[in-house]
Structure formats: C-alpha cells, structure tokens
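Worked example 4.2. Below are the chains of a multi-component assembly; read each line carefully before continuing.
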Amino acid sequence: MSKTSERVVSGRPDIHVVKPIPVRSYGQWAGAAVLLVFAALFLKNLTTNQNMQWPVVRQYLFHPDILSGLGMTILLTLLAMVIGLSIGIVLAIMRLSSSPVFQGASWVWIWFFRGVPPLVQLILWYNLALLIPEISIGIPFGPKFATWDTNDLITPFSAAILGLAFTESAYAAEMLRAGIQAVSSGQVEACASLGMTRSQTLRRVILPQALRIVIPPIGNDTISMLKFTSLVSVLALPDVLYSAQMVYARTHQTIPLLVVATIWYLVLTTVLTFGEHFVEHRLHSGTPLSLREMLRRLVVTVPFRRQKEIAS
Amino acid sequence: MTEPLLKVERLRKSFGSNEVLAGIDLEVHERDVMCIVGPSGSGKSTLLRCLNHLEKPTSGIIFLRGEPIGLRWKGNRLHEMTFDELSRQRRRMGMVFQGFHLFPHKTALENVTEAPIIVKGLRPDVARAEAMEMLEKVGLADRADYFPRQLSGGQQQRVAIARSLAMKPELMLFDEPTSSLDPELVGEVLATMRQLADEGMTMVVVTHEMLFARDVADHLIFMDGGVIVEQGDPKQVLTRPRHERTQSFLARVLPEAV
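Applying the procedure described above to all two chains together yields the following structure tokens:
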C-alpha cells in the first residue's frame, strides 16, 4: 500500500509534503508597473514644475483671506446641510402621508429643486427682487401686517443658503423616504401595541432607525455640498474659491492659488469621510473605530476583501 | 355573572372583496386563557389584530370592560377615535408578535423601559428597576445589555413578552408567538407563557401548539373560513370534536392522539 492515494509518478515529491506555489497574478503586476510609472511622472511634475510655484502656495495656504474663505465654506456647508435635512425630514413625512395634498406638495417641491441646477438657483434667488419686489406677512389676499423690501432680505449669503439648502432638501427627502420605508412595518405595529402616539413612534423608533440607514448617503451628500458651495463665487461671496480668485486677480498667480483651494477642499473632504466612517460605525456597533481600522477601511474596500477571503 | 374583560360582537373584516372574518362573537373573562386554533387563512390572526385595532374592523364592535375600542360617544353621536386616543386603549392590551419586532437599536433593557418612560412618563430609574423585574420574570436578567441581534429567537420573544408586560396590561394578545422559532427554542417561550397564565394573566393566544392549548387554555376556539366553527373546553374540542371541519384539521395537525 502506498503512502498516498495519488497515482505515483516517478520523480514527483509527495503531495502531502510539498507546499503549493501561490497563484501569480502577472496581469496585476504589469498594471501596477504602468501605474507606478505614471505616479512617478506625476510626482516629478508636481515637485519640479516651476509653474506650480510652491513658495507662493506656502505663502497663501494660511493667509488670513484664504482662512476666512475657508470659514465661509464650512459655514455654508453646515447651514445648507442642517436646513436642507430639516426640510427634507418634513418633505419625506409629507410624501408618506395619507393626504394627497401633502403628497402632491412634497412631490412638486422635490421635482422643482432636484430639477433646477444649483447654479441657476443661486442666480435666481439672488435676483428674486426682480420677480417679487417686496415680501410681507399678512392674511393671504387680505391686509398686510409687515412688509420688507426683498433687496434687503436677499444678500449673497442668504441667496446662497436658500439655493444650496433647497437643493439639498430635495435629495435628503428622497433619501429619508427610502430610509423610513426600509424600517419594517412590524416596528410601527409594535409601537402601536405599546400605546405610543404617532409622533412618539416617529421620533423614538422610526427616525432613529431610518437615520442609521441614510448615514452613508448623507455623508456623501455633505461631501457633495462642500464642493457645491464653490458655486457661490458667482455671487461674489468670499468662500475659499472666491478668496483665492480675488488674490490671483490681483497677483496673476493663478495656478498656485487654485492649488491652495484644491488642498483645502481635499483636506475638508478627507475629514468628512473620516467623520462619516466614525459616525456610521458608532451607530452600528456602539463603539467608534480606531484610526488604523478607519484607514484600512478607506483603502481596502469590502468586496475586494471578501474576494480575498473566498480565494484563501 | 361578571362583565367580561373583552367582548367581541358581530365582528366582520374584509380586505377588498375578500371577507376574512364573517361575524365573530366571543367573550374573554378576567384570568381566562383563550387559545384560537385553525388552518392558515382561517382569519385567526386577523381576529387578534382587530382586538387592538391594528386592523380596523369593517363592522362590529370590540368592548374592553364595556368601553368600545376605537369609538367614543360625544353626546348621542358616535365618533371614530384619533390614533392618539386609540393608543390610550391599546396600551391596556399587550401584544406579542410572530416576528418579535423588538427595537433593533435598543438593548433588551431599553426595549422594556421605552414605552413606560415615554408613554406613561415613568421616571427612568423606576422604569429600569421595573424592567429588570420583568426580565427576571422571563429569565433574561443577565441579557439586559444585549442588543436583539445578539439574542436567540426564543430570547428575543421573551424580551418582547417582558416589553409588553412592562406596560402592566389588563390582557395579553399572542399572535403565533412560537411560529418563527427553531423547534428547540419553542419550549422556553411556551414555559414563560404558561407561567404568566398561572399568575392569572388574561390571555388570548393564536397558536399551532395544540399541547399548550390543551394544557393551559381555559377555552379553545376553532376557526375556519372566518367563523368560529367550534369552541369550548380544550380537552373536549381536541379529543371529541363535533364538527367535521374540526376533525379533519385535528387529524392533520395531531398525528398522535392528544
């Protein structure tokens, strides 16, 4: 009787003794080599191209004008997201209401603000005074109690907030609606059987679960919003981009100042991405991720890891 | 004879043109355990869900201690209750579901304290102490800080029972509480229910567990086609069914003699 059930071929070692040679992915190696060449070219250009004017970049990176622009960008993002999400929650609940009037109103709002580009909206809101010269509070079609000149109300800042927040509200509403619908109807029944009111059910059970579901898309939206805020430069509102533009209009150092703006946008989006992973993980398991684990998750995507697990 | 705790009169329920309940009358007395059995589609779950108006009856009235559920007199006019008025009546009837429906984002303890705190306005520390008692009663005090997904099906269902009990309901409704459990987990849930029955809790139980019905129920109802076909003492109904439909149902679910 032989040591193994395998057919014996002279010269071959025992199959139980030798270690198999792992699969070689030549295609991956070749692709990686090409990418590394490109990376080297890019780095060389970045460091040696005189037009980048790194000393100018360094000079302006923490310039007070740029930093105050950065503050404006962050403030716009924050306000637009908070207002947008708040309106979005109301819209989502209206969409799911049993009243056709609420449903319809919500649908029209979402249809309009998702359909009109934010840039067009910004300009439209800024020029609102041309359409409606004065805004007043009173009884519809009746007497007015207080009246304001639209031009006094609409500043570049308020126009920017309106345009950005309303656009966000439409997207947020659709996200939240999907999130709310993903919470099982059994949850609503359990709440009803415990004697909870409608608003208790919504606040304590439905929204907390729906928000967990929509955290990743809200994170994405926040990053998009951060980038959308650069549109406000058309209203001459000094965000990061417009502050940089003002400097290079004076000094003609176009590229280094655009690099300054680019760096700040990348810094902010990176921070937001980390923040989103942090919140998401906290909501899922109650414990925040370590920095190392977060970095690993950012770089190695889940399906790829799965593939590796299956292969090994 | 005392007033029944729960009384159902001429209850009908249709979904579209499909009549699921075709006239149900029944009474549940205090400290009684009523089991409802019958083939799937017989309307037994719908009947249970009508009792606390999770389904609104098409017609007919349910009385809880003489008060109509979901309806209210204003002078001589009968009004439908708003959702929030109805919730005041619903909290008097606990309900346990086939699919547990625990709140997945809360721990076992928080699942139990939630309604007492926000619905009854109990102080959190008082609610926690009471909730621990309830978890103790269902044998899960050591799982208080676990999330539902970390518990077995049987444990989840026992937490769900504790969650309902924490509202101090006047009666408990069970909608096939063991039907989605692995066979080896059914026993622990039935044991908890048996203990409740022994303590005098009034219970209405829709179930497929014939042995539980035989041993625990005071009253057994056999439903088919949206009507009560036969009812009475469980041993009587299970061992000497009078109706042919009851006999054929029992022959299918009870391979051996009970």
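Take a moment to check your reading of the output against the notes. Chain B touches chain A through 28 residues (CB under 8 Å). The first strand of chain B starts at residue 6 and ends at 15.
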